[in-house]
Amino acid sequence: MVELVRQCAELKKLGHSVVMVSSGAIAAGREHLGYPELPKTMASKQLLAAVGQSQLIQVWESLFAIYGLKIGQMLLTRADLEDRERFLNARDTINALVENDIIPVVNENDAVATSEIKVGDNDNLSALVGILCGADKLLLLTDQRGLFTADPRKDPNAELIREVTTIDETLRKIAGGSGTTLGTGGMATKLQAADIARRAGIEVIIAAGSAENVVFDSLSNEPQGTRFLPLPEALENRKRWILAGPAATGNIVIDSGAVNAVIGKGSSLLAKGVIKVSGRFARGEVVRVTTNDGALVAKGICGYSDADLSKIAGKHSKEIADTLGYDYGAEVIHRDDMVVIQD
């Protein structure tokens, strides 16, 4: 922890802004209380988080103070990111800290979060925080040197992948489970986080946290670990919120013609291309858009509820008003309210 703080202090000296997403609240609480035997309930985890979060922030505060740096704590849940106004408020807070030369230290608010509002792991949380603050780089530190062609703990011939331009199924299969009993994330969650961040124009690096000067080297053209290049066309702010904030509440299956229109032409999604609707969602909520075989195509804000969309699925736009007795426009999801996920 001291070494990470030292490197962050060096970055600050060079004029860079630093935001830290810190894990370990529950583990810190368990250690501080002497590893108590507790019931395996959500309340027990929240108890440990409540105790551990204060311990954790005290350590970070004391370490950054060695270098004359001030920190500010931010505790977030997915609920803070799902609501557009709360998302903007969180963004304003983190930007205010940065602008006033204070290092934000962010963690999930495990003391109050339930399974419904948890991001779930700090890898994905860090990607969402990167989007919040408009970061240029996201550095994900782990116990491995980066992403390998196979699990290096099991295969001595595994090779480090130095650079990634496309995240495909091959890479997802390579990514394994959690490498530690203390954390909730493994290489798979880091890959998810990298995919989210790079779509917002953020370069991502996965590297070993114990490696010498790993934070400082992330600024170079040849950083340690695996480097994920950002997509050429970064998303605008509203689409970043769609990508980062709301968890999808439903699913829309579309036909091949609609897939080609959405991906290839950047078109809006029309009712005629909808095959099937599942899940419960109201008008204005975020949904997943998939192919008939389940491949994710996009996320977007749906202009119709699940009940209405089920009635107009497959119909021409001019038939919507006759079918429902009203319409909210020709588009089920407007292209301005949709983020295409497929590369």
TrEMBL record:
<feature type="binding site">
    <location>
        <position position="23"/>
    </location>
    <ligand>
        <name>substrate</name>
    </ligand>
</feature>
<feature type="binding site">
    <location>
        <position position="110"/>
    </location>
    <ligand>
        <name>substrate</name>
    </ligand>
</feature>
<dbReference type="InterPro" id="IPR036974">
    <property type="entry name" value="PUA_sf"/>
</dbReference>
<dbReference type="GO" id="GO:0055129">
    <property type="term" value="P:L-proline biosynthetic process"/>
</dbReference>
<feature type="binding site">
    <location>
        <begin position="184"/>
        <end position="190"/>
    </location>
    <ligand>
        <name>ATP</name>
    </ligand>
</feature>
<keyword id="KW-0963">Cytoplasm</keyword>
<dbReference type="GO" id="GO:0004349">
    <property type="term" value="F:glutamate 5-kinase activity"/>
</dbReference>
<dbReference type="InterPro" id="IPR015947">
    <property type="entry name" value="PUA-like_sf"/>
</dbReference>
<dbReference type="GO" id="GO:0005829">
    <property type="term" value="C:cytosol"/>
</dbReference>
<keyword id="KW-0418">Kinase</keyword>
<protein>
    <recommendedName>
        <fullName>Glutamate 5-kinase</fullName>
        <ecNumber>2.7.2.11</ecNumber>
    </recommendedName>
</protein>
<keyword id="KW-0067">ATP-binding</keyword>
<feature type="binding site">
    <location>
        <begin position="142"/>
        <end position="143"/>
    </location>
    <ligand>
        <name>ATP</name>
    </ligand>
</feature>
<feature type="binding site">
    <location>
        <position position="122"/>
    </location>
    <ligand>
        <name>substrate</name>
    </ligand>
</feature>
<keyword id="KW-0808">Transferase</keyword>
<comment type="similarity">
    <text>Belongs to the glutamate 5-kinase family.</text>
</comment>
<dbReference type="Pfam" id="PF01472">
    <property type="entry name" value="PUA"/>
</dbReference>
<dbReference type="InterPro" id="IPR036393">
    <property type="entry name" value="AceGlu_kinase-like_sf"/>
</dbReference>
<dbReference type="InterPro" id="IPR019797">
    <property type="entry name" value="Glutamate_5-kinase_CS"/>
</dbReference>
<dbReference type="InterPro" id="IPR005715">
    <property type="entry name" value="Glu_5kinase/COase_Synthase"/>
</dbReference>
<dbReference type="InterPro" id="IPR041739">
    <property type="entry name" value="G5K_ProB"/>
</dbReference>
<comment type="function">
    <text>Catalyzes the transfer of a phosphate group to glutamate to form L-glutamate 5-phosphate.</text>
</comment>
<keyword id="KW-0641">Proline biosynthesis</keyword>
<dbReference type="InterPro" id="IPR001057">
    <property type="entry name" value="Glu/AcGlu_kinase"/>
</dbReference>
<keyword id="KW-0547">Nucleotide-binding</keyword>
<dbReference type="GO" id="GO:0003723">
    <property type="term" value="F:RNA binding"/>
</dbReference>
<dbReference type="InterPro" id="IPR001048">
    <property type="entry name" value="Asp/Glu/Uridylate_kinase"/>
</dbReference>
<dbReference type="GO" id="GO:0005524">
    <property type="term" value="F:ATP binding"/>
</dbReference>
<dbReference type="Pfam" id="PF00696">
    <property type="entry name" value="AA_kinase"/>
</dbReference>
<comment type="pathway">
    <text>Amino-acid biosynthesis; L-proline biosynthesis; L-glutamate 5-semialdehyde from L-glutamate: step 1/2.</text>
</comment>
<dbReference type="InterPro" id="IPR011529">
    <property type="entry name" value="Glu_5kinase"/>
</dbReference>
<dbReference type="InterPro" id="IPR002478">
    <property type="entry name" value="PUA"/>
</dbReference>
<keyword id="KW-0028">Amino-acid biosynthesis</keyword>
<feature type="domain" description="PUA">
    <location>
        <begin position="250"/>
        <end position="333"/>
    </location>
</feature>
